[in-house]
Amino acid sequence: MSCHKPDPKQAGFDPSLPSGGAPLKTPIGILYPPNLTPDTQTGIGNWSDLEFVNAMQRGISKSGQHLIPAFPYTSYAAMPVGDVLDIKAYLMSLKPVTSPKRDADIPIAFLLRRGLGLWKFLGLNTTPWKPDSSQTVAWNRGSYLVNGPGHCGECHTPRNLIMVRDESRLFAGGPHPEGQGKVPGMRSLLERSRYKDKKDLATALQFGEEFGYENMASGGMRQVQINMSKLPQSDIDAIAEYLISLK
Ligand code: HEC
Predict the structure, then answer these.
(1) 152-198 per-position pLDDT tens digit
(2) Which residues contact residue 93 at a Cβ distance below 8 angstroms, ignoring those fewer than 6 apart?
(3) Residue 178, Cβ neighbours under 10 Å: how many?
(4) Which of 5, 34, 94, 209 is geometrically suited to a Cys-Cys bond with 217, CB 3.0 to 4.6 A?
(5) CA distance 101 to 8
(6) Ligand 1 in contact with 18 (CB < 6 A)?
(7) Residue 223: how many CB atoms within 10 A of its CB?
(8) 24: Cβ below 6 Å to ligand 1?
(9) Is 194 exposed, middle or buried (0-12, 13-18, 19+ CB in 10 A)?
C-alpha cells in the first residue's frame, strides 16, 4: 500500500486501495507504481497466476519486459510461490479501480530497460528462503518476514556502484536508496544501546514515533512501521527476535 498508493487526483479516489499512480522518487527518476486492483483493463484483473509470479519473483512484466528493481522482486524471489499466490488471491478480491499506467519519468528509460537483463544477472538472487533448524520457530518466522515479504534489506543493505545489494554487508545500513540521507544498520541493535532488550525493540516496531521512538520516523520507515503494527503480536516479536540476533 505504501508504494502503490492511489493518486489523489484519480476518479473515485479511495486511499484504502492499491490502485497506484502516486509518484515514487528513486535515484533514477520518478516512478508511478501501477494499479494492483483487479481491473481488467488497467489493473491485474486478467493476469494469470504465472504472470503474477513472474512479476513478483523474476521481475518480468506481463508483456515480457524487465521491471525496474525499485519493485523489490529481489526480496520477493525468496518467498514460497504459495505465499505469492495468496497475495494474488487477496488482491483479486479487492474492488477494481480504473487507474491507467503512467510511464516513469526516467531520462534514459529505453537504455535502462535494456541494461536491466544484465543487472538482474548480477543482482537478482532467486534462491528461496530456507529455515535454519538450529534456531527457534520465532527466529525463523522473523527471518522469513524480514528477508522475504518485508523486504527490509532493500533499504537497510548498502548497494554497490550499479545499485546491486552488497550481500557481504547485509543489513549494515548505508545511503538511502531514494537518494536522501542514510539508512541505519539493523545489526547489533542491543550492543549499540539502540534498544534495551527484545521487548523494547518489539514496542518500537509496533508503535514507533507515537511512543517516542524517533529513529523510525523518516525516509519511508514510518510507513513500514505503520504496516508492521498491523501484524499479529507473535510476528512483531519474531521480527524483534531475529533482528537482535544480527551482530
Ligand atoms: C523504504 C526504506 C526502508 C525499508 C523498506 C525499511 N526501512 Fe527500516 N529504516 C529506514 C530508515 C530511513 C530508517 C531511519 C529512520 C529515522 O531515523 O527516522 C529506518 C530505521 C529502522 C530501525 C531503527 C534502527 C535504529 O538504529 O534504531 C529499525 C529497527 C528498522 N528500520 C527496521 C526495519 C525493518 C524490520 C524493516 C522491514 C520490515 C525495515 N526497517 C524496512 C528505511 C527503511
Answers:
(1) 999 999 998 888 999 999 999 998 877 778 999 999 999 999 999 99
(2) 38
(3) 15
(4) 209
(5) 15
(6) no
(7) 13
(8) no
(9) middle
